[in-house]
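Protocol step 4 of 6: structure prediction from sequence.
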Amino acid sequence: MRLTQFRVTNFRSVDDSGWIEVDDVTALIGVNESGKTNLLAPLWKLNPAREGEIQPTSDYPKRTFGEIRDNPEAFCFIEADFETGEYKVELAKLVGICEEAAAVTRVRRYFDGEYKITFPRFERRSLVPVSEVQKALTELKEDVASIGALKKEEDFKDRLQRDVDGLLEYMAEDADAEELDRLNESLAGCIPPEPAKTSSLVPRVQRTIEQFEGMRGEITAEEPGNRRDVVDAVLERLPKFVYYSNYGNLDSEIYLPHVVENLKRHDLGAKEAAKARTLRVLFKFVGLRAEEILELGRDFDQRQHGREPSLEEITEIAEKKRVRSILLRSAETKLTQQFRDWWRQGDYRFELQADGNHFRIWVSDDRRPDKIELESRSTGLQWFLSFYLVFLVESLGEHRDAVLLLDEPGLSLHPLAQRDLSAFFDNLSGTNAIIYTAHSPFLVDADRIDRARKVYVAGDGTTKATSNLRHDEEEGQQSGAAYAVHSALGLSVAESLLIGCQPVVVEGASDQHYLTAIKSLLIADGKITPRRELVFPPAGGAKTTRIVASILTGRDESLPVVLLDGDTQGSSMARELARGLYAGESGKIVSTDSFVGFAQSEVEDLMPAKLLSEVVDRFERRPEVLFSDIVKADEPVVPQIEAWASSQNIELPAFWKVELAKRAKRRLLDVGLGYFDEETVGKWVRLFSTLLETEAAVR
């Protein structure tokens, strides 16, 4: 099962975090003391791989400590949604609901340790619609009329038809359980006390009675999530959560007898336990055993034996040390080669030495060829080596498919190394979903800004989280979280200048999502071959496009290409830019109207109406009228969505366009370019060819 979102309530500084969506890699960004750890810890305690016990004195909010202590079963502290995948078939049969309803399950845990399971897509009916009841009776009436009754059942058939007609006339409202019982009593009363054994009418009446009994069972059945067998079945499939806050940096010199002893102990303190874990995975990774290295290095103990060693014993000891030396050389070669693929801050070489009871790790690199003990190298290198070993080994072993929760990873790393760490997460996410906390913008990938969630302290002092990275904290509150997130967003701008990317300024974050997805599809299919990486820094609206464009003007004073909507605001900004900053270079101002085929367009109109309407309908499951049934492909889609939402009494959230874009981006990447017709692909190719040609023409 795959975690899709979670929500923390009544836990330490968190009153209600709100729902936090989860990707394969999710970053919780915020300043110190914003409560990031208080979002990871309860998720860990939902289903911990190890430890993770509920600690009342630490976990209960202080303001409601007494109330929760007296009634812990009433307070949920964590709830999370999981996609059940292929398991939905088995789960649907167990629960007695359709597969679509079983596709998502919500798991809640309470402070008494108990769990509650629900199915968000399952809607229990308290009444059976009158149309369903009438349909069942009408089908019965038609079938009875078509059945050739036995001669002695002719009166029964006539009476049955009259009674069914009466029931149809009587049924005018939705039916509850009592009404269904009355219907069944009426139908059962029509059946003769001693019906003919070969009767065709009686089985047909009984089938309708069974239909009504099924309807009654549906509206009166126990909530599926309250059943113990359902709870146990879901918990059995629930992924484990692994929480790391102490990564156990390796020491340069390791005393092997202590290692052998500590690896067997379970009463170590947090720091020593973390080091023991790191040592265990180090030896496992390089294919060594601490006991074997210790044993192969033992010398002859003259005091124990009371004599000099024999020639055979000297030869045997020498051979063991030779074996140990070969093992160490092989291990250090493996460590050097594989570590080089992850750590990009230098070409490091490791040397493993064993001398009696001591095991040492030495490090050298191209710039500093002299071997230096690991402990004397940078804290960042020590941390990354320890982190690399722990996660690479454990994620492929005992914690495979677990959700990894990393608290403040990479604090001691240089910004460039932090960026490499983000790439490390991408590779690691192939086996494990990752959620990590950070206050460094360098730990947010500029191309995957959508994976970041902002954590901040609300006006009432509680911790909140939002996927809206442009959200500002309430007036009078700390602005540090907003600053950290804005800095992360600013990295995409810096990237375009520092490493030679081609920036195309767009109005908003939603535009960035759409265009990044289209770019990926076109490049993958060979439709475009840009010489430089295309990035789409969002300006935060048409009004601020000029400011962002001027900031992005590089050292050669070259203005970036600007892609604007064809609506009123975009057209106004295009004219302003052409008269001012882009005077003489108006060819760099591109409008969506040139590619969509109608006026007042926005970037959303580059998307096929069918795909976008499907995403909207998945996003909003409540309305009677589906958006896909009314959308017009030759008109701007954003006003249509807003009008449809208003007609269906749906209140769109403040930043719904960004959320829609994120979902559409995932859909685009899932279906691939082959899903779209030639007209759509041609439109995208023309747009990106224009962006590339416009940029090349001024170089």
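Step 5 (inspection) to follow. The chain has a mean pLDDT of 82.
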